[in-house]
Amino acid sequence: MGRLRVGVVGAAGRMGAESCRAVDAADDLDLVAAVSPRHGGQDLGDVTGVGGGVTVLRDVSDLSASELDVAVDFTTPDAVATNVERLLDLGIHAVVGTSGLGADALRRLADLASGGAANVLVAPNFALGAVLMMRFAAEAARHLPHVEIVERHHDRKADAPSGTALRTAELVADARTRRPDVVLGERLDGARGADHHGLRVHSLRLPGSVAHQEVVFGGAGETLTIRHDSIDRRSFMPGVLMAIRRVGELDGLVVGLEHVLD
Ligand code: NAD
């Protein structure tokens, strides 16, 4: 396989800029394009500190498949679906970390990607430890059906619950053999969190946090807590690079980094 030409959409954001640094530092990848609506026309090096000589584009439609193999999207929940549709139209593989793609949007993207020239890998969490946390939680749920999820993120996060919490709830719901009754008894609305696939999900938003989650199981006289902490955005980069290298081998749309982990 030759060197992959990579673009970053949302390049000026927290995750986008970190991805630019990671791609730039990888021996087998070339950082050749970047998209940021507010920085169109500027040099990427001035915006992120790496990628000098690359001119930032305003819109995904300005990208060109002849110059690009894979694009990474770290934008916003309201922009991501349109961005990925455009990437697929252009025949550019998409690695998507942005949260907020619901079941309908994923179905639509799966239809678009099916049989097309480009694939999509959507990963609710690129941290390898978080992928393992989800895997271990699914295993524990087979034996301990009483479980709730507590996730904590920085206070600038645009959406709640996190994509990781939703994905964990889905994996746990699929794995558990019994769905226990949940007693709400809320004196204040929301005191018992939100419901996703029969699991209560609780979201904390605090400065000083990056991305943290506990999956808490209860049994007779015991609790089991499976916990993951991303304390730095660099934690996501090995997974992002793995996804960039592997997305071309997939078939259409795939959700979850675990599909390229093993
Ligand atoms: P951020 O607000 O720092 O950055 C988002 C960037 O997207 C901004 O610079 C904004 O200008 C840009 N943008 C908005 N619309 C755009 C468009 N149409 N085209 C191009 N760029 C556009 O946010 P962040 O902290 O970098 O997080 C980005 C997303 O990644 C969020 O949804 C977050 O939840 C998610 N996230 C995922 C993971 C993971 O492992 N999958 C990890 C951390 C964050």
Structural topology:
Layout: E1 4-9, H1 14-25, E2 29-35, H2 44-48, E3 70-73, H3 80-90, E4 93-96, H4 103-113, E5 120-122, H5 128-141, E6 146-153, H6 163-175, E7 194-196, E8 199-205, E9 211-219, E10 222-230, H7 237-246, E11 253-255, H8 258-261
Parallel strand pairs: 1-2, 1-3, 3-4, 4-5, 5-11, 6-8
Antiparallel strand pairs: 6-9, 7-8, 9-10
This protein binds nicotinamide-adenine-dinucleotide (NAD).
Low-confidence stretches: none
Q: Report the biggest beta sheet as strand number plus sense, adding barrel if it closes.
A: 6 strands, parallel
Shape: elongated
Annotation, overall tally of beta strands: 11
Helix and strand pattern:
EHEHEHEHEHEHEEEEHEH
Q: Which secondary-structure class do the elements indicate?
A: alpha/beta
What percentage of residues falls in helices of 4 or more residues?
A: 25-40%
Query: Approximately what portion of the residues adopt beta-strand conformation?
Result: 15-25%
Strand order in the sheet with the most strands: 2-1-3-4-5-11
- What is the residue-averaged pLDDT? 96
Q: Which molecules are bound besides the chains? A: nicotinamide-adenine-dinucleotide
